[in-house]
Amino acid sequence: MRQSRFAVRVSSLLLAAACTFTGATTAQAAPQTVATGYAALGDSYSSGVGAGTYIASSGNCLRSNHAYPALWASTHAVSSFAFAACNGARTSDVMNRQLGSLTRRTGLVSLTVGGSDSGFSDVMMTCVLRGTTACVSANADARTYMDTTLPGDLDRLYAAISRRAPAARVVVLGYPHLYKLSGSCMAGLSDTARAAVNRSVDRLNTVIAKRVADHGFTYADVAGAFSGHEICSASPWLRSVNLLAVVESYHPTSTGQSHGYLPVFARSA
Predict the structure, then answer these.
(1) Do residue 210 and residue 232 come from a single domain?
(2) Between 136 and 23, the higher pLDDT residue
(3) Region 174-199 average pLDDT
(4) Which 3 state secondary structure label does DSSP give 160?
(5) Is there a contact between 67 and 47 (Cβ–Cβ < 8 Å)?
């Protein structure tokens, strides 16, 4: 009798073990979600303002076929391409209007954001219309915002991106210097004002890079790519004031997108 009971127990244990291993094998063999989609989020530097050939359906977002996200997607085998970047987008706009393009199948995200939050368009208007002293002061105010408020805004956005697309590689690109100092421009801002603008770009990039690192994302610095191609250089890849299309002022041209942003993003994607 004891031997029979022991045999029954051993048989039960072996059966349970077999079921356990079979279950584990089945779980491991279950199909995994393949994250191969690409989503391009952010502001005008990602939508392609200044590059021309805007997609009619994008409306005021001014998404261009010459923007680096569209150029990259056209030459890579992605399962989906969500081009959500929009002119003038702040961190809150990306959070509220663009994150719907992210899913668990999103494997790559690109992003430029922070310039609009920091009021760069107002800063540049001040610099152009009100002179050097006002320009320097406006830039100082923008840098204060970058130091005090922008980090928290970026943290909330980056955390939300991670929640929406947990499998994605997130590449956050910075901004280029707008001006070459002591360059070829015969009119316009003083070099003092131009230097103040460039310092603000440096501060913005520094703040973004720090938050990116803390969230485990990849920061892609474009300043080097645009070196020698700023406004007032011999071969600018950025537009100066454009009175025929004011919104394009201080944005990369199509060459700035294809020769500046695209190679930097491609190395990080």
Answers:
(1) yes
(2) 136
(3) 96
(4) helix
(5) yes
